[in-house]
Write a structure and sequence with these properties.
By secondary structure, the chain is of the alpha+beta class. It is about 30% helix and about 25% strand. The longest helix is centred in the first third of the chain and has 18 residues. Its cofactor is pyridoxal 5'-phosphate.
């Protein structure tokens, strides 16, 4: 795998699989022992980081709300430069770059929290992925997951506490389904284990759950901006999209009447969902709106 890693514990950048030096995480780092860490990730397309500024702002918000540390404008600028350097050093043209912040460790112990003035430890990893992974080739199958969703305080920040997400994916795989989807505590549609979900309803509205019980997705918000851009309106109407709405909770019954359903995120782009809980969505094929939004997002990556 082509890529590079910044190791904040050693303050070095190394290439992935470089036999001369390997990145390490200290055994006593609370990001490892206590899960006290946050992360964010953005797509690398043609060597450029898509929506990096927005991902960094969310990264900083997650770090602050998780009590990992504060990142002022200067720290964000430093992190942005570091991310770009890691991508360049790794020779990554199509893939992902991930940023991690842990609360670190001051000594060899397993304490729950460290000194109040202890700075975060940062890690950045950029790696190459198959560019064709973004292509909308076949539809995905999805199912509602029995795994409880995280409480809103934790569901709305991007921490590394992904045990529920992993369990959602494991159960889905065990049931022969591509994607498991969290339901909220009220039984409404939540999110996938690593991406948002959206539905095109017969009135031409692309609906997605509000970011009150789920993580506010950077990619799906960019889709909102593109949908609300006047120059895109005519082409969007041709595929049945008139507006975007994330103001209302979505009942599972929305799926039954949806013309199209899709998974949206930086790691997957826009992927069609053709069945949900064993029921066909729309005509059971990846629809024109899904395919158009996937291409619209790719065009956006090329232009930024």
């Amino acid at each position: 795998m082509r890529g590079a890693v910044y190791d904040g514990a050693l303050d070095v950048i190394v290439r992935v699989n470089d036999a001369r030096c390997a990145p390490v995480m200290r055994l006593y780092d609370r990001g490892f022992t206590r899960g006290h860490a946050v992360f964010d990730a953005c797509t690398v397309h043609e060597g450029r980081c898509h929506l990096l500024a927005a991902h960094l702002r969310r990264f900083a918000r997650s770090a602050r709300e998780a009590g990992v540390g504060e990142m002022n404008d200067e720290a964000l600028a430093t992190m942005e430069a570091l991310v770009l350097e890691v991508v360049a050093r790794g020779g990554v043209t199509h893939g992902q770059v991930r940023m991690y912040a842990t609360s670190g460790c001051e000594s060899e112990n397993f304490s729950l929290c460290g000194a109040t003035d202890s700075p975060p430890t940062y890690y950045v990893v950029a790696y190459e992925k198959d560019p064709d992974a973004w292509m909308v080739v076949r539809g995905l199958t999805a199912s509602s997951s029995p795994v409880p969703i995280k409480p809103p305080r934790y569901a709305t920040l991007k921490s590394t506490n992904y045990l529920p997400n992993v369990n959602v994916a494991q159960i889905a795989r065990g049931n022969g389904v591509d994607v498991g989807v969290f339901l909220t505590q009220d039984g409404m549609i939540g999110e996938g284990p690593g991406a948002n979900v959206a539905f095109l309803t017969p009135d031409g509205t692309l609906r997605t759950p509000p970011a009150t019980n789920v993580l506010g997705g950077i990619t799906i918000q960019r889709l909102r901006e593109l949908i609300e851009t006047e120059s895109n309106r005519k082409a969007l109407r041709k595929v049945g999209i008139k507006r975007f709405d994330d103001s209302q909770p979505l009942s599972p019954f929305v799926v039954l009447g949806a013309e199209e359903a899709m998974l949206v995120g930086s790691a997957v782009g826009v992927q069609g969902i053709i069945s949900w809980d064993g029921r066909q969505v729309g005509d059971g094929r990846v629809g024109p709106a899904t395919s158009f939004l996937a291409e619209l997002l790719l065009d956006d990556m090329r232009s930024i």
